[in-house]
């Protein structure tokens, strides 16, 4: 009788160990993914900052529109001209 109880208890414990190991692996994968997302967001922010320092927004707009509104030469174009 005691052997059967021990076997049942051991099987339950072993099942819980396997379940816990799977949860830990899943948490590790999730944490690694979050770290990658954080790194990607940080690098994207850095690129945006560097890009806006090198290329002022209005210069990019003027270039894309194919119109010269005085961008980059100290004069201002008007929104109506876009």
From TrEMBL:
Keywords: Chaperone. It comes from the Eukaryota. Binds specifically to cytosolic chaperonin (c-CPN) and transfers target proteins to it. Binds to nascent polypeptide chain and promotes folding in an environment in which there are many competing pathways for nonnative proteins. PANTHER family: PREFOLDIN SUBUNIT 1 (PTHR20903:SF0), PREFOLDIN SUBUNIT 1-RELATED (PTHR20903). Heterohexamer of two PFD-alpha type and four PFD-beta type subunits. This is Uncharacterized protein.
């Amino acid at each position: 009788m005691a052997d059967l109880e021990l076997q049942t208890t051991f099987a339950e414990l072993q099942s819980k160990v396997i379940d816990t190991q799977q949860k830990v692996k899943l948490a590790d994968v999730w944490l690694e993914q979050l770290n990658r997302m954080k790194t990607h967001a940080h690098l994207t922010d850095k690129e945006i900052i560097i890009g806006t320092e090198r290329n002022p927004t209005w210069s990019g707009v003027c270039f894309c529109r194919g119109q010269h509104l005085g961008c980059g030469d100290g004069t201002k174009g008007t929104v109506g001209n876009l």
